[in-house]
Amino acid sequence: MHTPPLILRKDQERRLLAGHCWIYSNEIDTHATPLKSLEPGQPVEIFSQSKRWIGYGYANPHSLICARLVSRERAHPLTPTFWLQRLHEALALRERLYSAPFYRLVFGESDGLPGLIVDRYGDRLAVQITTAGMERVRGEILAALEQVLRPTAIVLRNDTAVRELEGLATSVETLLDTTDADWTLTEQGLEFAIDPLHGQKTGWFFDQAENRARLARYGVGERVLDVCSYVGAWGLRAAALGATEVTCVDTSATALERLTANAERNGLAARVRTHQGDAFEVLRELREQGRRFDTVLLDPPAFIKRRKDEKDGTAAYQRLNRLGLDLLEPGGLLVTSSCSFHMSREGFQRIVLQAGQRADRRLQLLEIGQQGPDHPVHPAIAETAYLKTLFVRALPAA
């Protein structure tokens, strides 16, 4: 089958040659390559203006990122064999890193598979396809996953808003085993039941696993506040480390019900209580009640999803951290995170420092965490380094 060429404007190959894989519509020579003649997701061969061969990729004329470079080897076009090879590469890394099969198996561009996310829960997989190019070869990808891992169930969580930017419909589907039973995973000796069909993302946040493990190093004290707790990954970890009173806050009643069940599953129910409500409102209530905690855990959703959200998102991060610091005992531990790519590590540190000043606290930054190695960072694609988790000791200002 003929693969049409995608020809770049002069000097627009530099980013690609440096390792990036995104191509924007204003980087295409549209006279040589009429974008509108291409179908969404269509495979293309990418050339520089001087006809230098760059690689194989796929195009979407209706998206701002109008093409993605996938293979840089001329002998390896985008075939079923190619997808198998990339999946084996991804699996080899995770098997090197993890003794149990609970991790993100494929992290898009970082694993050379832009537009594909795969989370592994033992012999079950949650898959998210976010681009027209991956949607076009969906059958090949699923066949490759079945060949490599022999899963008993696959959930397609294609309900992300990113798909709409690619002109794709959103849906949630179950393949193979269609029973509605809970999926389970283990992390640091704890067992969690999750809902891959209706939960946030694919049901779990593997990216914070390494940071949750770090809690043991610092000690959590007796009273812990877990804000944006979801199904209890942070809070139950704190309880397992010896906290006698863990208060978990989330807006979702369903998530808190699942958290309670997970606490019971691990024999921690007596130490864990839940509080449903808006994080900011609940923190203010706790402050007014004079409550204090030895550790405060803040793991909110992204407040800055697009660059235009930067001002409001920055203010939200500062407000949340100020409220969290107000609730800390002197010498207490604040573990605070941002998963907003548009919030830099330095910017986030500055926000927490300012929150400390307003809370009249002297801060010691003990450690900075990022996403775990099952979410590898692509050195040429800054967008793949998104998670910042600060471990901070808060002392009286005097």
Structure overview:
The protein has 398 residues and is an alpha/beta fold. It has three domains: 5-71, Archaeosine Trna-guanine Transglycosylase, Chain: A, domain 4; 80-181, Transcription Regulator spoIIAA (2-Layer Sandwich), CATH 3.30.750.80; 184-396, 3-Layer(aba) Sandwich (Rossmann fold), CATH 3.40.50.150. The protein is built from eleven helices and 19 strands. It has helices spanning 14-17, 80-97, 132-136, 138-149, 162-165, 209-218, 233-240, 253-265, 279-288, 310-326, 345-358; strands at residues 5-7, 22-24, 43-47, 53-59, 65-71, 102-107, 116-121, 124-129, 153-158, 171-176, 183-187, 190-194, 223-227, 245-250, 272-276, 293-298, 328-338, 361-369, 388-396. The strands form four sheets. A seven-stranded mixed β-sheet has the order 15-14-13-16-17-19-18, with helices on both faces. Strands 1-3-4-5-2 form a five-stranded mixed β-sheet, with no helix packed on it. The chain is globular, with a radius of gyration of 23 Å. The model has no long low-confidence stretch (mean pLDDT 95). Residues 6-72 form the RlmI-like PUA domain. Pfam families: Methyltrans_SAM, PUA_3. It comes from Allochromatium warmingii.
CATH class of the largest domain: Alpha Beta
Derived structural class: alpha/beta
- The number of helices is 11
Major sheet: arrangement of strands? 15-14-13-16-17-19-18
